[in-house]
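In response to reviewer comment 3 from the previous cycle, which asked for concrete evidence that the modeling workflow produces usable outputs, we include below a single protein chain processed end to end. The sequence was submitted unchanged, and the resulting structure tokens are shown without manual editing.
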Amino acid sequence: MDFDLSDDQQAFRDTARQFATGRMLPEAARWDAEKVFPVEILREAAALGFGGIYVRDDVGGSGLSRFDAALIMEELASACPSTAAYISIHNMAAWMIDGFGDDDQRKRFLPRLCSMEHFASYCLTEPGAGSDAVALSTRAELRGDHYIVNGTKAFISGGGRSDIYVVMLRTGGPGAGGVSTLVVEAGTPGLSFGKQENKLGWNSQPTAAVIFENCKVPVANRLGPEGHGFKIAMMGLDGGRINIGACSVGGARACLETASRYVVERKQFGRPLADFQATQFKLADMATELDAARLMIWRAASLLDAKSPEATQAAAMAKRFSTDVGFRVVNDALQLHGGYGYLKDFPIERYLRDLRVHQILEGTNEIMRVIISRRLLMS
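The workflow returned the following structure tokens.
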């Protein structure tokens, strides 16, 4: 594995960093406080190529790699993990259409998704099927050239605001082989939404239940053949786990940098906090763990780009480690700030609230351990 970034990679990483610091960071606290979904900023990000990062370029995508995406996500999350995470989810949904849709579907949906004229959501989780995703019960009954869909999806980022919903649902019997994927467009009769969830963090993106009541969806909106939906979902999650890990690293890196500056300025017992060995050792541990997390993400992304059979396990390892480390580093940064870190006048508490959910979504970190241990015990 080559740890030297190419000129192109350095260029779009720098572009993402400049966009994050110049356009996202100045507004991130307000988005959080006022629960603003920053539509225009998202479309500016799309104009830089971040609306279809690994979508093919014939429909407006950037055609970049998963490794490239990890670089971009870290930079965007250094300003606002919540908004960066929504961009990741949007990209996951767009990638599913690009990777498994036919030419008509790709041309119908992807140009406006890549420009973020339209926004996308990914719908897997249900009230009774979280970690046990294969137990999903949202059902689509085939009637002529349409499916009639009934069921509810829970905790959907973009719910009630997105234009496109990529939905995993049951068209066959129990188990993974009975799951298919439909693209449901906003405004479809029978599609409705629950109330906006009142969350601890991730306040710059709307979150709501997505409800289907005799929702009539054309067969022409099915991605791939019937029965392939669970495979599509799991392949999407490999990349999503890498991205959310990168978002944790980005948010934690910002907090480490903030804490490093603060301990130089803050004095106690007549000396800067930075002069105390306990502070120095804490910062050293934070930086070391964060670098290890980044390297695990890079490795997992490289394996996914190479279509390695080890990619799923590597993504689970990277997600588990980086999201745990990311939250711990932010918490340590808050501790170094003392009481000031607990105030909303400082940015640390926003990062703490945003990064906490990364240990839950895209498969909980307990499920990551299941994936890793299952693979170990098979060998």
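The longest strand covers residues 146-157. We consider this sufficient to address the reviewer's concern, and the full set will be provided in the supplementary archive.
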